[in-house]
Amino acid sequence: MGLLSELEAALRLWGTIKGQKVSDEEKELLKAARDGEDRMRGVFIQMPGDMTTFPYIQAGSKHFNFDDPRLTARYRKAFATLIKRGWVEYQGGIVFLLTADGWDAADNLD
After folding, report:
1. Which end of the chain is more exposed for a tag (fewer CB within 10 A), N or C?
2. Which residues are within 8 A (CB) of 51 and not within 5 positions of it... i.e. 6 or more apart?
C-alpha cells in the first residue's frame, strides 16, 4: 500500500507552513499523538481503507475514522497540514512521527 496522494504532496512541502493558526482538527491529532499509550506515543499511522471505510489517520492510540467521509477527509487534510508545518515527519511505510517542533506544539496546547 502506498501513501495517499494528499500525504505525498504534503511531504514535498514539509516545513513550508509557518505562523498560520492551528485548526481544531490539527490540535486533536497532536493531542492524540502526544497522549498515545506506550509505543504509540508520538506516532501517526495512515490506515488503509477498504470496501467499507475510507483511508484514515491514527494518532497515538486514537483512530480518526468516522461514518461521515467528509469528516474523515478533514482530519486527513489536518494531518497533511501538520506535515507541511514540519511537526510530523515520515518514518517509512505507513508510519509518521512527531518532530521535536511537533512535540513542542503538542505540549503547548494545554
Report:
1. C
2. none
Residue of higher predicted confidence among 60 and 2: 60
Beta-bridged to residue 85, according to DSSP, are none
State phi, psi for 47 to the nearest 5 degrees: -85, 140
Give the containing element (helix H, strand E) for 88. Answer: strand 88-92
Rounded to an integer, what distance in angstroms lies between the CA atom of residue 14 and that of residue 35? 24
Output the CA–CA distances (angstroms, integers) from residue 37 to 72, 95, 106, in the order listed: 22, 16, 15
**Hey, what's the cell of 5?**
496522494
Tell me the whole-structure pTM to 2 decimals: 0.92
And the C-alpha cell for 75? Answer: 482530519
Residue that is written with C-alpha cell 484514515 in the block? 56
